[in-house]
Amino acid sequence: MEVRTAASPKDVKHYTTDRLREEFLIQDLFIPGEIKLVYSHIDRIITGAAVPVEPLTLTAGAELRANYFLERREMGIINVGGKGTVTVDGKVYTLDYKDGMYIGKGAEDIIFASVDGAEPAKFYLNSAPAHTSYPTVAIKMEGEASEDTVIIKDENKVELGCLEESNHRVINKYILPGQVESCQLVMGMTALKPGSVWNTMPCHTHDRRMEVYLYFEMPEDAFVMHYMGEPQETRHLVVRNEEAIISPSWSIHAGSGSRAYTFIWGMVGENQEFTDMDAVENKELR
C-alpha cells in the first residue's frame, strides 16, 4: 500500500508539474492480477483497484495495523471492467459493468473474482474509516431491488448542464443517505454527453470533505485537463484514461476533456450533504 501525506495550499502553489503529479495523481491503478491501494492522509481515504485474473483476497497489510481490511473501515466499489464477483464473508455478489457495491465495517473475508479471466473485472474502490456497521449491498442502475440489492432511485439520476455550455451530463448517485447508508463515504458516477467536455463547472470547493476522481471511458490518445488549487491559485494536471486524482477540501476540482468521458467521484469527511458546496463564480477564477 502506497502512503501519501497531506499537502498545504501554501506549499502547493510552488509545486512543479512533476511534484503536483507525484502528490495528487494516481496512475497504473488497474494492474491485471493485482490489488493496488493508495492511502492518503487527507481524511484517511484509501483509493484502489482490483483486477482479478485469478481470485484476489483483500488483506489489511501492515499499514492499517488491523486484523482485516474493514475492521475499522467501510468501502464502496464500482466495476469498470468485465463481469465479476465480490464475495463478502461467504456471500457472493455479481457486478456487471458500472454496477456498484457498499461493504460495511466488520466484513472480514473479501474476495474479488472475474467471470472470465480473459476479460477481467476492474473493481475500483474507495474506503474510509467507519464508526459503525451498515448493511452490505450491491448497487445497480436498473432492475429489481432485493434484500441485498439496491436500485439507484430516479431522483438520484440527475441530468445537469447543456450542450451550449459544453457540460451536459448525468450524475448517478450510488452511495448517499436515503439510498445506501454509510458512515461517511459518498460515491457516484457522472457521464458526459457526446459533445460535452466540462465537469463540475461552475466549480466549487467543500471544506467539510475531500474528494477523489477516477476518469475513464477515454481512448488512449484522449485526456482530461484537471484543474485544482485555490480559486485564485489554480493549477492543472493532464489525466489519462483510468487515472485518478486526489482533491483536498481546499481545492477546486474541475476538468475539461479532449472529448466526452465518464468519472467516478468519492467523498469522505465531516458530512454527507451532497449540496454542501462553496460555489466559485467563473469570474473569480485565475
Automatic annotation (TrEMBL):
<protein>
    <recommendedName>
        <fullName>4-deoxy-L-threo-5-hexosulose-uronate ketol-isomerase</fullName>
        <ecNumber>5.3.1.17</ecNumber>
    </recommendedName>
</protein>
<dbReference type="GO" id="GO:0008697">
    <property type="term" value="F:4-deoxy-L-threo-5-hexosulose-uronate ketol-isomerase activity"/>
</dbReference>
<keyword id="KW-0413">Isomerase</keyword>
<dbReference type="InterPro" id="IPR011051">
    <property type="entry name" value="RmlC_Cupin_sf"/>
</dbReference>
<dbReference type="GO" id="GO:0019698">
    <property type="term" value="P:D-galacturonate catabolic process"/>
</dbReference>
<dbReference type="GO" id="GO:0045490">
    <property type="term" value="P:pectin catabolic process"/>
</dbReference>
<dbReference type="InterPro" id="IPR027449">
    <property type="entry name" value="KduI_N"/>
</dbReference>
<feature type="binding site">
    <location>
        <position position="211"/>
    </location>
    <ligand>
        <name>Zn(2+)</name>
    </ligand>
</feature>
<keyword id="KW-0479">Metal-binding</keyword>
<dbReference type="GO" id="GO:0042840">
    <property type="term" value="P:D-glucuronate catabolic process"/>
</dbReference>
<feature type="binding site">
    <location>
        <position position="253"/>
    </location>
    <ligand>
        <name>Zn(2+)</name>
    </ligand>
</feature>
<dbReference type="GO" id="GO:0008270">
    <property type="term" value="F:zinc ion binding"/>
</dbReference>
<comment type="similarity">
    <text>Belongs to the KduI family.</text>
</comment>
<dbReference type="InterPro" id="IPR007045">
    <property type="entry name" value="KduI"/>
</dbReference>
<feature type="binding site">
    <location>
        <position position="206"/>
    </location>
    <ligand>
        <name>Zn(2+)</name>
    </ligand>
</feature>
<feature type="binding site">
    <location>
        <position position="204"/>
    </location>
    <ligand>
        <name>Zn(2+)</name>
    </ligand>
</feature>
<comment type="pathway">
    <text>Glycan metabolism; pectin degradation; 2-dehydro-3-deoxy-D-gluconate from pectin: step 4/5.</text>
</comment>
<dbReference type="InterPro" id="IPR021120">
    <property type="entry name" value="KduI/IolB_isomerase"/>
</dbReference>
<dbReference type="Pfam" id="PF04962">
    <property type="entry name" value="KduI"/>
</dbReference>
<comment type="function">
    <text>Catalyzes the isomerization of 5-dehydro-4-deoxy-D-glucuronate to 3-deoxy-D-glycero-2,5-hexodiulosonate.</text>
</comment>
<dbReference type="InterPro" id="IPR014710">
    <property type="entry name" value="RmlC-like_jellyroll"/>
</dbReference>
<keyword id="KW-0862">Zinc</keyword>
